[in-house]
Amino acid sequence: MSRSTDNRSLHLDGDTKFGSPKIEVICDALIQQSLETEKYQRKFQPEEYGEIPSLLLSFNSLVKISNLTGFIGLKKLCLDNNNIEVIEGLDACVNLEWLDLSFNRIKKIEGLSKLVNLTDLALQSNQIEKIEGMDSLKKLHCLSAGDNKIATLDNLLYLRQFTALKLVSFSGNPVASDPEYKSYAISHVPSLDFLDYRRILKKERDAALEQYQAEILELEEKETIETSKSDAARREEAAKQRDTAMNIPGVRSLFNTVVMNDPDSTKMLVVPDFKEFVTAYRDEAKEEVDSFVAKMGEQFEVKARELAEFHTVMDALNAEAAHTSRMMIRAFEVGLNEARTQLADKAVARDSKKCQGIADSVEDAALSMEAELLDRETERQEQADEHLRTFEGIANDITNASLEHIQLFFSNWREIETKFFENTLTTGQALLEELASGEQRFTRYPEAARALLKDRVAFNTIIQGAHDNRGTIIDQAEDDLMAGERAWIKEHVGGARADEDTRNRVRVSEVFDYVRRVEEEMDEV
Fold first, then answer.
1. HSE, side-chain direction, 13 A CA sphere, residue 428
2. Where are the domains of the chain?
3. In Å, what is the CA distance from 506 to each residue of 129, 311, 375, 502, 511?
4. In the CATH scheme, what is the code of domain 3-211?
5. Would you name any one GO CC term (predicted)?
6. Beta carbons within 10 angstroms of residue 195's beta carbon
7. Residue 362 has pLDDT above 90, yes or no
């Protein structure tokens, strides 16, 4: 972004002696005016706005950013010297690299989250008090925010996250008058090469780093810890997403969900004699989980491979059909263009019989092509249906195998659960008898355990209730995984069939529409 941004003339406020400015919005007329200013070689229709790389809307008294939804290819947008108060309406401009909002009435930085490709941002001469709302602008290279109301040094610290940031201008802000401003900015935003459009000298950088050495070391240590936490969180999220794709969400932590997070199970675990049963439960459950995860991982790989092969076959089929259709239409259009040339001849135009003969010939050729195109589409659809049936059979086999793995896994888990329940019940009854006989060893038990064992009815209720709760959790987990497998086959087989039906309807409609347009053209002859 050039320094000239900071040297623009200020726009006139509405209450100046020159009168209130005309309030404008971004409309087609204003867009066309901008395109004329940019001197493009051709005129763009509204449906072609996505092809426009640059738009100049400066000095237009705009009060709102709107009507930019079609500008997905926009690289540069100038909205400086207007009356804009809110940054909004830019979400569609995802490829924007250069944005100038200087000389407006903006109070807050917002509405930029989708502009992940932005490298240059000009906010000169607004009413901004805080640098914020730019977390997603990881490619930011230049920020011009001079002549605002930014007052504190922590706004500079916010910029530390932008490792590509090379130039920052805060001149004309209250913070720029702070004696520590320059050294703080240089030391806390290490990527900077320019501050307020002046190159940062090596001696200035060295002095600033020495001045804030202790603070920077502490800051770097905190950043290392945060980075480590962030990396761990990303790995955890990636693992969750993969588990969901494998249709095993929550399986790895199922023991904690079933046993350790259940309130009634937690109550009974205060009894020391039950600890060995919990350990055995955990160990056996882990073996089952590891085996099940491995099997479902293999199923996941099979699914991915078969899906890829199916889509490869379908893409090849559709590509071949599209190529054949294009060749047929091109061959027809050679004759059509020859007919148009003949009909444009004045001598031919005066001979109505000859004109009619040419038109009839074109219509006959169009109808013949239509019949052949529809035959080819029917043939292609039959082949697609055959591929779909083959894939559906394979998908059913994969799903059935996965369902068997799920059923076996939970069957084994229920055996572990039953053994745990029986052990705790049997041991619990023995403990109740010992406690009733005055066994002295219970004096060493935690108070919560003694209180639980003193009430036989409450104890039995908790043991049975905990078992029932765990059974409910296990049943629900099994139902969820079974539903996940059925959803997979519905998504990929049912989805493919729906896509194929839609494609066929669209293709037939395209053929009919094309031939009808040719017939209408010939009828006018």
1. 27
2. 3-211, 213-245, 254-523
3. 54, 20, 15, 6, 9
4. 3.80.10.10
5. cilium
6. 21
7. yes
